[in-house]
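New to this. Please check this protein:
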Amino acid sequence: MKNFADRLLKEITKMENPSCIGLDPRIEDIPDFIKKQSQKKDSKTKNAIAWSFFIFNKMIIDATFDIVPAYKLQIAFYEKYGSEGIKALEKTINYLKKKSKIIFVDAKRNDIGPTAEAYSTAFLSPAGFDVDALTVNPYLGIDGVKPFIDDAIKYGKGIFVLVKTSNPSSGDFQDRILENKERLYEAVGKMVQKWTKRTEGKRGYGVVGAVVGATYPQQAKVLRKIMPKSIILVPGYGAQGGGAIGAALNFNNDGRGAIVHSARGIIFAWKQKPYKDNFKPKDFHLAAREAALAMKKDLLEALRSR
């Protein structure tokens, strides 16, 4: 079974694009014509919302699958609508598989051993959603992370451990100074480096990656040195305030080893400048393509200028 890190890096190289699109739909931001179309399919509110999500996602995917290597789905936007929302998630996952795209699910799972095993099976195994990668919370330690690592190796998947997240209050815990004078995020980064050893593929990266926000460039510089063999998933670009120059610090000197994520800035580009002046609601997917291409250009320029 092919190593996940090798698969992801191959797709990034093929697309010449180290970015992924977040499919995080919000019903209030979906164009009215999609909502009306969905209500005709099923008048029940939750069902109509689920249809809206899938139609919206499908149009985004169709407009961008040839320019990005991967997509990330934040499960909370689907879970909030119960079983119908999960159906929309699963339909989207299955459609991405038909397009042969790499799929991240951002679910931040973890628990004690047996429960962690169940979570891991749900997302990484053929018995569950069978996606390519999952975000994992390390707070419970190795006995809560090991089931995910084992399944990642077994099924050719990847996990991304929360190390330094993009939110403003991440420092409440992650920046705490420990007895040895290092920050908590540094200690977690060292654990990630330890966990990913001996899982490296032919391209030199392991299947245990890290989440490091684009909103914290100085911390990214430190963590890149601590975790040279881990692929870094970089949220926070665009709508959360992170820029390409900061995001580029998550890459190794050869310009590899990271993938930068954006959701709102891409999928809702049609509502934002400069795109809203040029794209009507019915062309939201075309605006998303333009925004994705702009992000690609921005990142590549930042990497070249380092």
About this structure: The chain has a mean pLDDT of 96. The longest strand covers residues 102-109. Residues 4-301 form a domain with the TIM Barrel fold (CATH 3.20.20.70).
